[in-house]
Specification:
Number of strands: 11
Structural class: mainly beta
Distance between the termini: 29 Å
Length: 124
């Protein structure tokens, strides 16, 4: 199920792997039809238990699939709008969307991240 939001979208329990044909179709829908599978870069990202990332933004649209553990993303005033994601959930972030991230619980979290233009991370 897709939860539409202004600067981000959440897809709960997508049931597809990012690197599968279905995952490629989902990424094309998120990034736009002009993007082909060869245009998307994908990399794994791991955070240790209880990790907290300071508020930041990215210079390119990006998508992240949670593959293990639980993550929380904060948005809005004081990052109080909190979205928790678990395995199989995906979040798409528009370039420039200020957010904070943290691992929920006492286990590491892993994600697979995709982007179409190499991005930088800047402080929010």
């Amino acid at each position: 199920m897709i939860e539409p939001m202004d600067g981000y979208k959440v897809i709960r329990e997508s049931g597809v792997a990012m690197t599968s044909p279905e995952g490629s179709s989902m990424l094309a829908a998120l990034f736009g039809d002009a993007v082909g599978p060869d245009d998307v870069e994908v990399f794994p990202f791991e955070l240790a238990a209880t990790s907290v990332l300071t508020p930041h933004r990215h210079t390119s649209d990006m998508a992240a699939w949670v593959t293990e553990g639980r993550m929380a993303f904060g948005f809005g005033e004081g990052f109080a709008d909190r979205i928790e994601l678990g395995p199989g959930d995906l979040i798409w972030l528009r370039a420039g969307e200020d957010h904070a991230e943290e691992v929920v619980g006492h286990e590491r979290a892993t994600m697979v991240v995709a982007y179409i233009t190499r991005f930088e991370t800047e402080p929010a």
